[in-house]
Amino acid sequence: MSDTIVYLFIVSVISLLLYIISELISKEPLIDFRIFLIKEYFVGFSVFFLLLGFSMYQVFYLLPLYYENLKGLSTFDAGLHILAFALFIAIFSPVAGILSDKWNEKYVLYIATVIYLISSIFILPNLDYYTPKTQAALMTIPLGVSMGMFFAPVTTLALRKLGEKTSLGTGLMHYGRFVGGSFGTAIATNDLYRHQWEHFEGINAMQDSSHIRMFIDSVKEQLVSLPEALAESKAKAMFYGVEYLQSLNFSFQDTFFIAGLFGLIGALPVFYMIVSDLLEKKVNQ
């Protein structure tokens, strides 16, 4: 991470704090921050910002890269394999909306959160270079189900009690989603790159130089028609490619898992709402 990025981040945080202070003391604020005192809206906004932005956006970003960069599929083929995931989002989105209206949006959100956490923490990290393409597509179906069930209940929950503040609440939620998503994709990019080279260096550190020499010599024997220097270079390039592929393979697994952990953090507002509702019921009884 460069010093410039760190300095800009510090300036951004300070600027945000100054803006919030100015809004709180202003007689005609642009944003009425009292909207966050409404529990349902606070939970909905937090879930949008943290769970959707910091976790789901990482998954949206990583899946095409997994199919193209690790599995070696073309962009078209990668899109076909993501289709199963996208199809279940499309199927369960209206289902979640119907259940939110007829049942209770909180229960639908609880179910979606549990399915998402199971998918992102326990299923996605098992995707690797050796996973068959069709199996990889099938493994993303529970993820599609959870994401399809996510948007309707969290939106209904957040906006139901806003009244005249609905337009403000809608704007803030979309803004929070995009800001959280920018953080999510940046984190995924950084993690994927960092873990790849950490694994690459680790693989290099554990190599036995004599075995590497044997591998290079065996490859050179298959390239006897080439000049010795060129055959040596090609053999080393082949060995480098294998190391690179394995390090990228491990990096995708690590990054998928970290995205799931961010989902766990993003689910904290949902857990807060569950505990809060249970306490309210206990008091009312």
TrEMBL record:
It is found in: Membrane. The keyword Transmembrane applies. InterPro entries: MFS, MFS_trans_sf. The keyword Chaperone does not apply. GO terms for cellular component: plasma membrane. It comes from the Bacteria. The chain crosses the membrane at residues 6-25, 37-60, 80-100, 107-124, 136-159, 256-275. GO terms for molecular function: transmembrane transporter activity. It is a multi-pass membrane protein. Keywords: Membrane, Transmembrane, Transmembrane helix. This is Putative major facilitator family transporter.
